[in-house]
C-alpha cells in the first residue's frame, strides 16, 4: 500500500486552477522528487498532503495517507502532522518564530509529537543528528546562519520520527556550499531512518542526486513521472527535455576579441577597499567591516570576466563601486584612462558602462512605461533630439529581440525572461563598452536562462562589449567567462581560465565550491 | 481606481459617497442654508425637529440644520488644511530623509521625535496662550501634529521603494537625489499617502471638535460641530437634542472617512496594510 | 559580543536621546512663551499696566538677566523640582501641577487599563474568527467606537448613568484622601468615556497585527509540528502580534493625557486641563510653561518606556544598532 496516494487533486483560487487533476503515489521508502518552475503548483501539492493549504484554496479530489483518507477535522489533521509527517520549508528565517530560541522551538516539536511509547527522543540526540552544537540551543533564529537555521528546521521535522518528510525547496535560500551540505544531510537521514521523502525543487540536478522517483510539474499539471533514471535517460514530455537541456550549460564560444591597440586595460581597479562603519559617531561603535579589502585587477576590452564567491564575500560591493553607486574607501578605479572613486564618475564616462540587475521584477518602476525607463540613461548623453532619442530606444529594444511597440507598455505586462531582456536593452541604450552583469539569470526560470545567456553572448560579439559577470553559479560562469576570479572576505584569492580553475582548484574556497557542485545528469 | 473597482468594494463606495455627501453639504452652505445662520430668534428656541426646521432650533432659536451644514464645512476645512500642512511639510521631509540619507535622515527623525512630543492639544495650548484661540489655531495645531505622521509614512514607504533596483538604475542614469525622489519615490508612495490622508482627515475632524469644544478652536460667531457641542454643554441635561445632532454628525462623517480609508487601502494595494500608521486621536 | 554590554549601550543611547528630545522641547517652549511675546511682564499685565508694575514684575520674574541665563535657570530649577512661582496665584507651579496631576494621571491610567482589557481580547477574538459574523460585528462596533469623540461620549454617559439611572455622579471630584471610594466613582464615567475610542483603536490594531502574523511562515511551521491553527495562533501568533500593538499603546497613552484635558471639562474635574485653561485666560505664562513641559515629559517618557519594552520583548533589537 502506498504511503501517500493522491487522486485527481485540483486546487483553485478564485476560480483559477493552480493544480489540476493531479494523481500520484508515493510508496513507503521512496524518495520522491517533484520538479517544477515557480507557479507550477508543486508547493501547493506538498502543502495539501499536510493539510496546510491557505484558507482561500478550493480543493477537490482525494488524498490518502497510509491507506486512510486525510481527516477533515483540523484537530485530527494536526495530530497526523505532529506524529507522522515532518516538514522543512524554503526560507528558514521566516519559518522560525523570531521571539523563541531554537531550543524552545525544537522542544516544542518533541512535546507535540509525544512519543513516549517509542523511546524518549532527547534534544541533544536530535541536535547531534542534524549537526548542531549544544551551544546553539539558547540562540534566537537571527543569531544563526542560514544553514544552521535550516538544520534546526530539520531537527524539528525529525522530532516525531515521522514516516514522511516533506522538504519544500529546502536549500534554495542557501549558498552553494551550504546547499550541498544540507542536501547531503537530508539524504543521510533518509537512508539511516528509512524515511519516505517528498522533495520539492526547481533544481533538476538536486532532484536527480537525491531522489529515486521523480514527477515533473508544469502549470498545475504533472506532465511526467517515473523512476529518476528512466525519466532523465528517456524523457517523454517535451517540457522535461527542455528542462534537461537547460540544466546542461554549453560553453558559448565566440571569436577572439580584438584587444585595444595600445594594450591598456578598459577597466583598472587599483588597490580598492571599501570599509563600512556602524554605530554612528559614538566612541564605542563596532569594529569597521572591510567588505572589499585591497582588490586590484585589470579587465581588457572585449573580455568576459567572472567574479565568483559566496554571499557576503564583497563581490556585489565591488560591482557597485565600479558602476558608480558607491565610493571606494581607499584606492582608485580607472575606466578608459579616466580615474574615479565611485560616485564621482562623470556623466559621459557613466554612459560608457552599465549594469544589469539580478531581479528583473524590481528593476523597472511599475508606474513608468518601458520606453520611459529605457530612456532614462540617455540623460547622460546630454540633449538628444527627439528623433535620435527614439532611434536609440528602437535600436536597443530590437537588439534584444523585442519589438518597438512594447515601449508603450508597462512592466507588469511582461514575463520574467522578457523583463530581463528589457533590462539588458536599458543597459545597452547608451552604447556602453563595459556591462556589469549581477547574477543575470539566477532569478529566472531554468527554461529561459539559456535564451538570455545566448542573447548576452550574441550581443557581446555584435557590439564588441566587455562583460564583468558577478555570480555564484559556477556552471553559468564556466559557459560564459574567459577568466574567473574567486573572491573571499573582500579579497581575490584565486584567478584563472575556467577550465583550468575548475579542473585544478588551488585555494580552499575554490575547492569547496567545486566539491559542492551537484553532479551533471548523465544523458 | 475606476468604477469597476468601486463595484468590487461596496463598503468603499458607500464610505466615499457618504463622505462626499457631507463635504458637499458643507460646501453648499456657502451659498445657501435653509435659514440664515446668524438669525437669532429667542421666541423660536428649543424647537424639536419639524417640517420647517428639519433638525429643530438651538438655544438662540437658530436653525440646527443650517448650523450643521456650516459646521461641517468648518470641520472639513480645518481638518483638510491640517492634512495639507502635514503633507506639504512632512512628505518632502520623509522623502529627503530617504533620498539623501545620512545626516539629513538623522535630522528628520529627531525632528519628528520632538514634534511627536507635542500632541495637538499642547500645540493648541501654546498658540492660544500667545495669540488667543481661533480656527487658525486649530489648523496649525492639527497641521503640526500631522507633519511627523506624514514624514514617517513617506519615509517608511520610500525606504521600501529605495531598495528596488529601478532606483539604483536611476542613479546609474545620473539622476540626482531630488530627481529620484520626484520621479520614482513620490509616485510609488502616492497610494500610501492617499490612504493616510483619509485617516488624518478623520482624525483632524475629531481633533477640531475637541479643540473647539474646550474653547481653543473655532470662536463665535463662526460655527463648527465642536463649537455647537460647546454651546450645548451647559444645556445638555435639559435639552440633550442639541448635543446629539452635532455629535452624531461628527460620528457619521468620521465613520464615512474611515471606511473610505480602509477600503482604499484594500482596493489600491493589499500590502499597504502593513505599512500604514494607525494613530489615536489627539 | 557580550549581550550585557550591548544592553547597557542600548539603555545609555535611549536615555541620551530622551534627554536630548526634552532639552530641545524645553527650548521650543521657552522660545515661544518667554521670547516671542517680547516682554512677558507687559504681556502678562496687559497694556494698561503702569511702568512701575511692569518693572516690579520683571524683577520678580528675573527678566533682567539675558535670555540664555534665564533658560538655564528655568531648566536647572526644574531639575530640582522648582518650576517657578505662578504670577497670578503666587504659589509654586510645581505644587499646583502636582495637585492637579493627582486627578489627571489616575484618570489616564484607568482609561488605559480599561482600553487594554477590553480592546485586546476583542481584537484577538475578531482575528481568530476572521471573516465570520463575530468578526464583522466586532469590527463594526470598533469602527463606530473609533469615530465617537470621547467628550461627546462622556456627555451621553452622564445622561444615561448619572441623570436617568442616578448610579454615578454627574461630575465634580472628591479628593482621594477624603473618600477614595467617591473619588473612584467620580472617575468611572470619565474613564469609560476616554477608554471607548482607545479600546476600539486597540481592537482594530490587534486584529490587523494578528491577521498579519497568521499569514507568516512560522505559524505554518507551528502547524506542521502538530498544532491546530488556533493553537498555533495562541502560542506563536499573539506574542509576535503584540509588538506593533506596543507601539500604538505608547502613542495612545500620550494621547490619553491630552484627551483627559478635554474630558475633564465634561465632568468638571479639577485636573491639569482646567488649570491650564485658567492660566491661559489669566495670562499666567509661568504656569502654562510649567504645565506644557510636564505634558511633554510624560509623552516623551511614554515613548521611551515603549522603546525599552520593545527591546525587552524582541531579542532581535538587543545588540543591534537602532
Automatic annotation (TrEMBL), chain A:
Transmembrane segments: none annotated. Keywords: ATP-binding, Nucleotide-binding, Transport. It comes from the Bacteria. The keyword Oxidoreductase does not apply. GO terms for biological process: transmembrane transport. The keyword Nucleotide-binding applies. One of its GO terms (molecular function) is ATP hydrolysis activity. Gene3D superfamilies: P-loop containing nucleotide triphosphate hydrolases (3.40.50.300). Residues 4-244, 267-514 form the ABC transporter domain. InterPro entries: AAA+_ATPase, ABC_transp_ATP-bind, ABC_transporter-like_ATP-bd, ABC_transporter-like_CS, P-loop_NTPase. Belongs to the ABC transporter superfamily. This is Dipeptide ABC transporter ATP-binding protein. It comes from Devosia marina.
